[in-house]
Structure formats: structure tokens, C-alpha cells
Amino acid sequence: MRFLMILAGALLAIWLVITATARLAVREALSKPWPAELGTLHTVPRRYPSHPTTTAARNLAELVSPAGIQLGMKGEEVALVPMSKELNNQFTDYLYAQLQRSDDSVTAPPTEIAATLRAHQQLLADVTRYVNESGSSIDWHDEIEAENRSYPPLEGIQRLSRLLAANALLKRDASSWDDLHAIVLLVRPLWHREDTYCVARAISSARLANGVARKLPPPVPPWWREVGDIDARHAVLAAYQGESWLWWKWSENWRRRMFVRSIVLSAAFDAPLASFLNQRRGAAEAIAGSHDCAFDVDAWNKRWKGGRWNFMFESSRDSANGAGTDFQRAAVFDFERSAAERVMAIKEHRPLPAASRCSDGTWTYANNVLQFSKPIPIESPGRTAVPVRMRY
Known about the structure:
This protein is mainly α. The protein contains 15 helices and three strands. The protein has two domains: 2-47 and 237-326, no CATH class; 55-231 and 349-391, no CATH class. The chain is globular. The protein starts with a helix and ends with a strand.
């Protein structure tokens, strides 16, 4: 009996040491600062104060509803007959087919796209004017601390962006810049959300606006500098950190719900969590100083893939450490913005920018051909919005 008591005491002591060590590892991971002046994970909620959907966003949802586009988030939906998935896909295919052409030429749109744009000309003019007048007052509900979080109407925002982009592309006049400004303002709040889903949609729509902009006639309006000031890489890093905080918060909620189990299995949970948080911070540190625009997603994900033992946090795309697609989109954004800057300079007969946003290649312009020195990959379902070789 005495032997069993000693053995039990020894096992308890070992369990306490392992449990305390694992818990301390989590606390250390939470207290380590992230790159790009993002602070520690503890400071994340300060960047994302809770707020309701604004009146301007609710009004916009009502205004755009006749086009079959839902801009009301969950619980705030507006009654409408939705635009069909087939028509939305037509807009997507048509737009990127035009943007991937090497010059300013644009082919006639399919019949259904042309008819939709004709039918909604006044509506699109009203939407553009409203968004441009409302500016930053358009925003959707956010509450990072909520256990059941909601998201902005990302699909609706993207559909409206495509509709405005197609309208601008086919007009190609001074008013087209107003359509693009509306796209940029529409997605502005998404850049400042705490998850990479929202930032990814912001990048997608901003890239679309950038691709159309390089096909428009000069002069370039002063507001376009807003696009030049966007730091897509920092936005992705901030959201990447935000999602890391959300996973930690989920783990704390799990502890409260499964109190007894969480005590017994504390070390088995905390050790993977600490490893997960440290790996994500390491991935952020590796990307923070990079200005490469050709980004290899597979290589990145392979490098930052967690060990198989960490089954709790490596089983899904939502928590995977090697979320290289998000970083690639930011790199592509920088390339396409750099390309558009050069096209705009050519059209306005200005010297081409001496500096490039891409450190892994060079630009040349000769015999009316503007070209980057290397291909810029983008993983599906992403599409190229500005080619690496253009004729102007």
C-alpha cells in the first residue's frame, strides 16, 4: 500500500510539473510581441472595438437590393430576388478576361451582362454617389469577443464590386473613376477586420479596381493615392494575429465548458496550443520583412506546416499555420498596384516610378512594352488582374 501511495504521489507530481510547464508555455506565447508593431496577442481586442452596423450600411443594403445583391449581414438581411450564381460567374469571367488583355482593348460583353448593366444604370449611379458621399460611415457589425461571431456580407460586397467594375470598364470615361472609388470605399472597413476572410475580400475587390484603373483614360484623380497607401501585407499580418487570438479565445471557452476534463487534460491541450501560437508568430516574423511579389504558396505552407502530433490545430484550413494563400494575395496586390502606377505614368507622359514595390524582380519599358522580369503566380480561385507584360 505504501508503495502504491508513493507511486501515486510521484505520478501526481509529474502531472503537476507537466501541466504547469505547458500552461506557462501558453502564457509565454501570449506575451511575446508580434512583428510589424502588432504587439502581443493580449492587445488584439484593442484594435477591434465592438460596434453595430451603421445606418449608412443599412441604407446601402436597401438601395442596392433591386440589383439582387444582399448587403445585409446575418440577421439584418433585406428582402430581394437574388442575382443568380450563373450571372455572377459571367461577370467574373468577363471581367478577368478583359483585365488579362495586354492593352486597353475591351471586347463586347455577353448579352445578359449588357442587359443587366443597361437595366441598372440609374441604380449604379445612385449607389456610386451614395458610397462616395458616405465614405467611412459604411461599416458592418463587429464584436470580436462574441462567442458566435458574425461576418459582413462578403459575397454581396464582392458582387457589387464586380457590377461596378464592369460598369466602369465598359464606360471608360471620367465617371468610371467614381465607380472605382465606390469599390475602394466599400471595402475599406474590411481591411480593418480581425480575420483573413474579410481582408482577402478587401484585397480581391481592391485588385479588381486596380485592374480596371490601368485601362481607364487619364487624368488619374487625386483620391487614387488612397490605393497607393494601402498596406495589404500589414493588413494580412494583423488579421493573421487576430485569428490566432480567436483560436486562443476558443480554447479558453472550451476550458470553461469542459472544466473537469480541461484540468485533467490540460497539458495535452496547452502544449499543442503553445506550439500553434508560436508557429504562427514565427510565420508572421518570416513574412513581415519580405517585399517579394512572386510568392510560392506550396513552399510556404510546407515550411510552416505543424507536426502531425498537433492534431488539434492542424486539421483544417481555418487554423493551419501555413496559410500561404493569404500572404500570396497581398504580394500579388503589391505587384498589380506597382504595374498600374507605371501604366498611369505612361498615359500621363510622366517618368516611370524609380522604386518598385517588388524586391524580387525588375521593370523594363521599351518599344511600347512594359514588362516585369518574372511571372507572378496566383493560386486558384484567384485570377490575374494585371498581366506581367503589357503594351502601351
